[in-house]
Every structure is written in structure tokens, then in C-alpha cells.
Amino acid sequence: MDYSELREPFQRDGYVLIRGFLDTEELNELNEEIRRFLSEVVPGLPDTQVFYASGSDGRREVRQIHRMNCDPFFETYRNHPKWVALASALLGEAVSSRPPVFFNKPPDSDFPTPPHQDNCAFALTPPNGVEMLLATEESFDEESGCLRYVPGSHREGLRTHEYSGVRGFALAISDFGPADEAREVAVETRPGDLLCHHPLTVHRAHRNRSKSRNRSGFSMWYRGISTRVEQSDVDRYDRSAHRAQRAGW
Q1: Are 201 and 184 in contact (CB under 8 A)?
Q2: Of 38, 55, 180, 230, which shows the fewest CB atoms inside 10 Å?
Q3: pLDDT (tens digit per residue) in 84-101
Q4: Other CB atoms closer than 10 Å to residue 248's CB: what's the count?
Q5: How far is CA 15 from the centre of its chain?
Q6: How far apart are the first and last CA of the chain?
């Protein structure tokens, strides 16, 4: 498929939604592998790689998994031709990938995603990258905590971030306020839909208020090969991330 027509709206708005990016067979395969990873691989992973939350029934559930490429399927999947072709089209150049990540908000859990820009962690110069988030088994909607974007915010530079205390999202925009809320757009997705956003696009998500549905998604991140990583900025973010991990939230 030719994804070139998506580059213009991605560059204009800082995000783009692709309905039905994965067909039924592709989505079923990925969901089966995620379920296998959760049952067979996660129990042996350290708590620096897997973060947990308590759902409405008090059970501990996985909230985030980092570096899923520790598993052979996901090491290969990070270079899936369909995903790489999309990333290359959006960024206008060849790309390299980061390890896949799994995100989950258990039913009725108190874990909002704070407003942030991904480049506070990834530190790309120039910021030519894209994060892709796929809805896996349930829809993302207002009740379950869909992503909320501030369109065009990627053209306004990196905002000031401060320590958030949230494991997995250790920094949050310090002056996010009513003007941002007035501009933001809530984007609802169905299983198989893919959201792609720029590393400077301001975004956040409310907590999952659903009493029965998980809000789980599979994420891949790509950067253009022309970019470089500012290691001092990555180290600064990692210090906040380690602090949040020690806090245990």
C-alpha cells in the first residue's frame, strides 16, 4: 500500500489515524502473540521492564511492558515491512526502530497519562520520528481513555517538562492548561486502527473509567536515519524515570 498521502496531514496536524491498518488475520496473529508474551514471558521479567496496576477488582494487572524485543517474535516484528513502509512514508526517509512497547489501562483504574511530548524522552535532533499506537482487543474511547492531541503543537517546539511521578511517563508538561485543553482533540479508535504522532505533538489520555474493558495497545516507535540522539537529554529523562520506578506508581 502507498502511504505517501498521509505525510501531508501528519506534518500539518502532528498526528494521523489509519483505520483498519491491520486486517483481521494480521490483528489476530498479533493479539495471540501478545497474549502468549503476557502469560509465558512476563512472569520472568524484572519490575524495571514491566509495570503493574490494580484494577477495579483489586487484581494486579500489567500496565506497561518495555523492550518486548527480548522475545524472538517481537524482535522480528519491529521490522515488519508494513509498519516500516508507513514510518518511512510519514518521515520521508529510511527509518530505524526502537523495541516494541505494550500499554494497558485496566478497568476502572486510576492511571491517567499526563500531557507530554515524546521527545522529552527520545531526544531526537532533528525531531523526525513517529510513535505508532495500535488498538488491540478493545476500542479506545472517551470512557476507556482514548488519546487526546493538541493539533499543530509539534510546530511550536519542546515545552518545559517536570517530574510527574508516573512510571512510564516520568515527565509531564509543566504549564499545560485551559488553552491546550480548548485545542485538543479526542481520537477514538477500534481494534486494528493505528494512531501515529510526531515526537513533539502534545498528547495525553484520561484514566480508564470503564468497569469491564481494558484499554490495551501495542506501540512501535521509529526515527529517521538522519536524526541523532542527544544522549545528555536521554540521561536526564532516565534519572526521572528511575525516580518514578522507585516511587512504585
Answers
A1: no
A2: 230
A3: 999 999 999 999 999 999
A4: 10
A5: 12
A6: 41
